[in-house]
Amino acid sequence: MPVKGNQFRSNSFKDDETPRKPGAKAERPKPTKPISERLPIFNLEDGRILKIVGLFSLVLAVFFLIAFTSYLFTWQQDQSYVSPANGGWHNLFKSSKELIESGITDPIDNWLGVFGALLANQFIYEWFGVASFLFVFIFFVIGFRLVFKVRLFSVPKMLAYTLFGIVFISITVGFVHGMVSDYPHFFEGEFGYWSNKLLSVQVGHAGTGAILAFAGLTVLVIAYNIDFKLPERRERNIPAIAVPDVKPEPVELEDEEISVPVEWPRNGGRAKGNNILKEDVIEIVTPEPVKPEPMQQNIPRHEPVVLKPEPELEVEEDIEEDIPLTIDVVRPTPVLNIEKSDDDAKAASLVEQFGQYDHKLDLASYQYPSLDLLENYGSNKIAVNADELEANKNKIVETLNHYNIEIEKIKATIGPTVTLYEIIPAPGVRISKIKNLEDDIALSLAALGIRIIAPMPGKGTIGIEVPNQHPEMVSMRSVLATEKWQNAAMDLPIALGKTISNEVFIADLAKMPHLLVAGATGQGKSVGINAILVSLLYKKHPAELKFVLVDPKKVELTLFRKIERHFLAKLPDDGDAIITDTKKVVNTLNSLCIEMDQRYDLLKDAQVRNLKEYNNKYVNRKISDPEKHRYLPFIVLVIDEFADLMMTAGKEVEQPIARLAQLARAVGIHLVIATQRPSVNVITGTIKANFPARLAFRVLSKIDSRTILDAGGADQLIGRGDMLLSTGSDLIRLQCAFVDTPEVEKISDFIGNQRGYPSAMYLPEYVGEGEASSPKEYDADSRDPMFEDAARLIVLHQQGSTSLIQRKMKLGYNRAGRIIDQLEAAGIVGPFEGSKARDVLYPDEYSLERHLETLQKPSND
Ligand SMILES: Nc1ncnc2c1ncn2[C@@H]1O[C@H](COP(=O)(O)OP(=O)(O)OP(=O)(O)O)[C@@H](O)[C@H]1O
């Protein structure tokens, strides 16, 4: 405990006053008592003893440093005095006559006199050699810590390493010196010399070297966990790669098997690509072209279009000439930095003293779920049937030729559920012509879910997606066991599944910043939401993320009930954390709006622009008023069956959702909204405008697809997790990662069975319009025993908030809420004002005390 001010004001003296009665004094046999009455009591809490020890330690450090350094220059001159043969330490007590009789005539040269000479000789020559200088370090660190209360290093660790270092250096120096000399020297000291002798007798010179190397490396491994790497790369089987957040799991990472396109060249070459066997390759079928293509000869002219690099050189020269101008413009910035440096220095000293703020400390032992909780479905290999591939390609080519569409090249990329055939049409073919043939191609391939992308954005080709006969399931485990996921350094990474080229697709929900999910019933929407939630649970600590779950269907999200005390946020009442009731949804959404406003106030106060900067500043203790601030976790609001909500609550829901969607991104509140019915009265213009990222599972009509994606395509999906992700500009076809209910249950159990917070995170209270309570009557008899203390606290902080009472007085939310109501009734705080704290109606404690007295009077009478 820090001790402030004059210690003589403390009770330590008063305590001793009682036994001072004359009688008592005579009876007490303890002889120490009278001394303690006159002398101040030294106890460790007092701090004085520690300061004295600290000062002594610092003096020792200086003393040792001077004596040792001097020894290096004066040891020869002082040898006769310090030598044990001539008396050593006994010489200290000899008179000068006795010294002369012992043959010691030379004066002592050590800068610290005879004591310095003896001490240095003892440590350096007789003990540890030059390694003894490390004692200076030990004393300095301890002294510095005790005197200035600044923690340079952890003392126990420093002691352990330094003492080892002394012994190790002494023996190692002795080992090296032993190669050239057979006598002890002050380099290694007698300890180093004799230890070497002993070891050499036991294990030989080489054995001693090996033991020393082993000991040195072991300590390096303990201290820094150094890696031993052989020159050539070995099999990659270590899961302990640098994963910032996830605890390393002993699970083998899987290689992502990305599809390499299979190509069929125009003039009947062989298919290229690693996915099909050479003997399976069939030459491109070109039924006699109806219209001979005169432009064929031009083809080679299109290929070697290479941009020449020469102009770049000129540009570089220009830039070099411009450089001085740029430097001039940038110059004023250091002035700003100087202003800041005061705060920075303060923050740095706080960090040095207490370390960075650790938001995970409350649940420091929290274990991230392991991959073993997930199942492995399917083989996770691209198992393509070469016959199917060829047959599809031939049918596509045939159909196109049938309509006089000549193609240049065709290639196939095989995904888990669909294969993408990319066509380069011959010059002069109109794209719209191919697009119009969508149904004909589907007919000729006799397949559902054919999607034509004409043209493929940024590729100059036309894509035809054809479902595979045997779709491959993408298990969540196979996605999370990839290096790409393990190394994903995103704020809110979500593993959505795999792309058409079998590549793992990871998106950052924080960047999206909100996600709209739609799809007809039974097409994989719930699985998709589970995949999003599960991926976040795999990457985030409970201190960093909270979910607000809304599930009008009452069955989909119940699996997450067990993680309430870890990952859920709810309104401060006793109800269920997973919200199923429409009225409560409206309150929760408004409460989230209040949370958003409060967060913006905090951001403003901390002069930062977003949650990441804010938390960064908070962790580095750069926020000047930490009492007012807190570490802000991300909040992800998930609403299943949004259509149902819109039907029952309409505008009441739409308004807060629109507000959150517009503003909440910077303060770390992100929305994931799912709906089965993607009609325009559910996904309204306002909502759509604020959800640039949309995920569409299969829908039943083109109109629905347009409602969700502003484009067709979702009606041509094949279901079972086949989906399209629109990120505003791009439309990406993905196969959703599959995670089954038992897996989600296992993960929830795993997290739920660990120590959690006392309750779910409480969102700010929200009182609906109809519910706003009428001014309460003050009732002195029923007021809380903590009422007066709470009143003083509120007036002292000039902040009428329930959470302040909760935090400072360690009360539950309900009791704190009751007290604040009583304070309002007693006229101490103003009425509830939404996101702002209530007004405090008394400016100081004096006026409050007078008011409290008047409140007490009627009951005293
Ligand atoms: N990614 C996937 N991979 C493989 N199969 C899937 C995938 N997603 C869903 N399925 C299959 O589709 C079935 C229905 O999925 P899901 O329950 O997610 O549909 P839904 O759209 O949520 O339906 P509802 O709207 O009625 O709840 C699942 O039981 C599963 O068999």
UniProtKB/TrEMBL annotation:
Subcellular location, record wording: Cell membrane
GO biological process, one term: cell division
UniProt cross-references to PROSITE patterns, sorted A to Z: FTSK
A GO cellular component entry from the record: plasma membrane
Region described as Disordered: spans on this chain: 1-32
Nucleotide-binding listed as a keyword: yes
Keyword Plastid recorded: no
Gene3D superfamilies (alphabetical): 3.30.980.40, P-loop containing nucleotide triphosphate hydrolases, Winged helix-like DNA-binding domain superfamily/Winged helix DNA-binding domain
The entry's keywords: ATP-binding, Cell cycle, Cell division, Cell membrane, Chromosome partition, DNA-binding, Membrane, Nucleotide-binding, Transmembrane, Transmembrane helix
Domain FtsK: 501-706
Name this protein carries in UniProt: Cell division protein FtsK
Organism name: Mucilaginibacter pedocola
